[in-house]
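Reviewers of the previous submission asked for a worked example of the structure-prediction workflow described in the proposal, so we include one complete record here. The input consisted solely of the amino acid sequence. No template or homolog information was supplied to the procedure at any stage.
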Amino acid sequence: MRPYQSTRQWTHPEGYKYLAPWTNAVLLRFLIRKFTETLPRPEHRTKTQLDDAARSVVSNIEEGYKRPSTKEYLSFLGFSQGSLEEIKGLLKQVYQDRFLQSRPGSSLADLGIDLKEVKGLLKDSKGEIPLEVLYPPLASLNSPLTSLNSPLTSLKSPLSSSKSPLTSSNDFAVTLEMFMELVNKTDYLLRTLVKSLENKMAEEMPMSPREKWLKVQAIKRLEEDRKFDEELRKRAGLDEKLKKEFRGK
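From that input alone, the workflow returned the following structure tokens.
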């Protein structure tokens, strides 16, 4: 049995905060929470499922990042991907049940949210600027609607209006299309991260004695071929020199 080896190396204990998938996941959880607050009481199970799944996407990225091996990290990212797919299915269900509006052509830009800009800011800042400074909507999950400067101040909760608690929450600002945009982009980023880690793990995996021997033999063959090619070039250069000398006589 091979000895256990740690393959994870990180310089910042909360380095996951500088990953675009985590940033997207935090925003998704924020919007999911705001949406589930608009659901009527009989939909408490749907509310719990959505909230738990959104929390799972974020938490598994965070926990996986601190795991000692790349293999474990990949497992937790897989849990995040699974929870993301659960959110996608649940959102489609609440739309079919008329608790979530659809507006073709709507996007996160309508709320002042530019995911590419946020990703660029995180990259340029190298994690030295707090996320809440870079991205105000993430400043608080408790009272994000109290700031008049926040692009999310337009979010409405039908439960706070004069409507019946059983009324459809069609006046909620975030549409099905916006949620799907965020979910799909987060999924893409997670898949990209997983692929990168899989390649890294393949490079880090310890080789068996036979694999090491084969690698040594391959290196030897390359070195022998290099020397042989160099000798041929020398001979070719010497022959050309002799031909010129012969022609000059």
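DSSP finds seven helices and no strands in the chain. We consider this example representative of the routine output the project will generate in years two and three.
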